[in-house]
Design goal:
The protein is built from 16 helices and 17 strands. By secondary structure, the chain is an alpha+beta fold. The chain is elongated and about 95 Å long.
Length: 471
């Protein structure tokens, strides 16, 4: 099966974070559980109702385009995409065809074809023999991003989708929770041995990054196996069966002419340059630090790639780190990242570190003081971990906590001499092993000394005292 080149293009839909829907004043609330609550004559397509463009939704798509270094449209309009399905009350979807808001751009090394704005559909639910439709989602602002067919592996596709999710969250454009359907990935996949592209198959129903990667990898294998057996790939739309881990045929793939696009006569054509808040300068000034910029900054600070990625993915942990290391030396920042990535993140997963604790700037300041205590040699690693645990439920400074519980590291040689003597007397066989040339025995004695001092002994100084005592 060697010699085949997979080619993948992605179409990603992301619901935008706005107060109201795309063309009406109904609430845009993805967490609403009661069906058919956020609806009105406009999003239900009652006769005589007229749509009005959501200005904030347009701004958010233009902001995404600016971050991607895409070409922002001057002239744009909305079109009617005609097809009939129960989740489309009008019998058409308001979308954009010939004049999208954004053309071009690059994300994660992948070229973008276009980014446009449309309205979301309702949500169908199939219960037994009954099919129900919840129109709460109908009319929600939906951004569609289409890539060029320049992706060549499932991993590359997954990395692109993850980076887009981070971008949307960084811009405040959307939360893009895939498990909630706020971001949906569709992959157009073909394989070929020639330089030209093969027959394209679209795979839908990809509701997680892992599912997207598995579906793409499976579809590549399916198409190659089909060609190897002398068959032909049919252009179609396929779904992904999460249980069977296979794609399955759904319907023949439609072409753009099947939708009979034409400009929506109820909506005005927009000249973006005539809207001052949509100027390129204002949009660029509104950009926060972008995910790839933030990642590069962390790496420049000396952080490991895993820690840098974690702080980019988890904005709360990243903000806590940024606040804590504002006034600490560069080496201390690396230590801080290690403790956040292991101790704080781990205890947060266990429910011991609530998000409200991470948002408190006083806690970030105390954490910075803890790191400086480690750097100054006042706290050992064990003592720092014990102090940090107590900091979660105390407003005292880390130094005060460490002193109260006897965790300040003992650097005084005189104080460690009797500790070494006590351990040596308690472990004669280990002493004999050390004198016989077993270096591991010395490490055991040091460990016992640290245990005796409840982690407060400086292990380097304690080790030296044992060597002196055992000569």
């Amino acid at each position: 099966m060697e010699g085949y080149r997979p080619t993948i293009g992605l179409e990603i839909h992301a619901e935008l974070k706005t107060q109201t829907k795309m063309f009406c004043a109904c609430a845009n609330d993805p967490d609403e559980k009661r069906p058919n609550t956020n609806i009105c004559p406009v999003c239900m397509a009652h006769p005589g109702s007229l749509p009005v463009v959501n200005r904030e939704a347009v701004r958010k798509v233009l902001l995404v385009g600016t971050a991607l270094s895409g070409e922002l449209a001057d002239f744009t309009e909305f079109d009617r995409k005609n097809y009939f399905y129960p989740d489309i009350p009008k019998g058409y979807q308001i979308s954009q065809y010939a004049y999208p808001l954004v053309r071009g751009g690059v994300l994660n090394g992948v070229a973008i074809t276009r980014v446009h704005l449309e309205e979301d559909t309702a949500r169908s639910q199939h219960i037994g023999e009954n099919s129900l439709v919840d129109f709460n989602r109908a009319g929600v602002p939906l951004m569609e991003l289409v890539t060029e067919p320049v992706i060549h592996s499932a991993g590359e596709a997954g990395a692109f989708a993850r980076e887009l999710q981070l971008l949307l969250r960084a811009l405040g454009a959307g939360e893009a929770h895939m498990e909630k359907g706020e971001m949906r990935v569709e992959a157009n996949i073909s394989v070929s041995k020639e330089s030209s592209l093969g027959t394209k198959v679209e795979v839908k129903n990809l509701n997680s990054f892992k599912s997207a990667e598995r579906a793409i990898a499976h579809e590549i294998e399916r198409q190659i196996a089909l060609l190897e057996q002398g068959g032909q790939v049919v252009q179609e739309t396929r779904g992904w069966d999460e249980v069977k881990q296979t794609t399955f045929s759904q319907r023949k793939k439609e072409s753009s002419h099947d939708y009979r696009y034409f400009p929506d006569p109820d909506l005005p054509k927009l000249m973006i340059s005539e809207i001052s808040e949509f100027s390129g300068e204002i949009l660029k000034a509104a950009l926060p630090m972008l995910p790839w910029e933030r990642r590069a900054q962390y790496l420049a600070q000396g952080l490991q790639e895993d820690d840098a990625d974690m702080f980019v993915r988890d904005r709360l942990l990243g903000d806590f780190f940024d606040t804590a290391v504002q006034n600490v030396p560069p080496k201390a920042a690396v230590v801080a990242a290690n403790y956040i990535g292991s101790d704080i993140a781990g205890r947060r997963e266990g429910g011991e570190v609530p998000d409200v604790w991470l948002r408190d700037k006083d806690n970030a300041q105390h954490f910075a003081e803890l790191i400086l205590l480690i750097q100054n040699g006042m706290l050992s690693s064990r003592g720092a971990k014990d102090t940090l645990v107590r900091m979660l439920t105390s407003e005292d400074s880390p130094e005060a906590i460490a002193k109260e519980h006897g965790l300040i590291q003992k650097n005084d040689t005189k104080a460690l001499v009797p500790v070494a003597a006590k351990i040596i007397q308690a472990h004669p066989q280990v002493v004999a092993d050390y004198k016989a040339g077993k270096e591991a025995a010395l490490q055991f004695l040091v460990g016992q000394g640290i245990k005796e001092t409840k982690g407060a002994a400086n292990p380097t100084i304690l080790r030296e005292e044992f060597i002196k005592a055992l000569k």
